[in-house]
Amino acid sequence: MLTACAGKEDIDTITSHTEEYLAEELDIGGMQETMVDGTKADTETEEFTYETQTLYAMNGEKQLYGIVYIPQNAGEQMPAVIYSHGFGGTHHSGAAYADILARNGYVVYCFDFCGGGPGSKSDGSMTEMSLLTEQSDLEAVLSMIQELPYVDGNSIALLGESQGGAVSAVTSAAHKDEVDGLILLYPAFVMADNTRKEFSSLEDIPETYTLMGMTVGRRYAEDLLDYDFYQVIGQYDKDVLLLHGDSDRIVPVSYSERAVQVYPSAQLEIFSGTGHGFYGNDVEKAADYILEYLKEQFG
């Protein structure tokens, strides 16, 4: 098993990576507000077309914006995957996976966390966002997806990248009877350690501060200062799939290697030479692992 050391990341590199990521996010055309047909690629394994719809979820008084991908003629009730984006991102980052999964018969919901990023179309601001507010958002989304008439409520998986992976992990631990599958892409279990490196006590945390080139609020650090991901995530006792690059300087692969030791049943696939975020062929490779996992879980 390949291992990367958990060294301190250079803040300029982090900021540059995040800004490049956001630039790619915001350049991906306009958000689809109306129903569109999914295109069918020329491969033997992809069988379904799909349509997309804007679909909102409510978390208390806050509204979450999302896009649902609905396969056509794939059954009255279909398995579903809920995609959670990373720090500073939007639902756009899940579009490539949603396209592939929908063409394989899975309902997919990609949404914006409240205050999840500068481009978020959900309510709230980044200064109000934290690990636990995003967990609450995902719980609201899970409840909404369970009630959709075309979704099999006993076949719902969470798929999250980076911070969204960490959120998916803690949410699945709290709702293990409702979450039937868990897929984590380079999950940011490093978040708590990074916070403790920056702040030694609650008194040290300012009202706002800069993280990866963006402004977050005091609550972001408060919720992480004494948080132990590895005491929480192992409560999820179903099969888990983790995908991580061994050249990831934002979240070293050692964090996923430790997670595999904590989960009762987990598979870690390490992508050689890959950094933080999957692009190009790595997306296709990840999708192959995801489809294989979902087939094993849901048939």
Q: Approximately how much beta-strand content do the residues carry?
A: 15-25%
Radius of gyration: 18 Å
Show unreliable segments. 1-43
What spatial order of strands do you see in the largest sheet? Answer: 1-4-6-5-7-8-11-12
Mean pLDDT: 88
Protein name: Alpha/beta fold hydrolase
GO molecular function, one term: carboxylic ester hydrolase activity
Family: Belongs to the AB hydrolase superfamily. FUS2 hydrolase family.
Domain AB hydrolase-1: 214-278
Structure keywords:
Rossmann fold; 9 helices; two-stranded antiparallel sheet; alpha/beta
Report on the structure:
The structure is a single chain. The protein is built from nine helices and twelve strands. The protein has a single domain, classed as Alpha/Beta hydrolase fold, catalytic domain (Rossmann fold). Mean pLDDT is 88; it is low at 1-43. 33% of the residues lie in helices and 22% in strands. Strand 9 (208-211) and strand 10 (214-217) form a beta hairpin. Helix 3 (131-146) crosses helix 4. With 299 residues, the protein is of the alpha/beta class. It is globular, with a radius of gyration of 18 Å. Strands 1-4-6-5-7-8-11-12 form an eight-stranded mixed β-sheet, with helices on both faces.
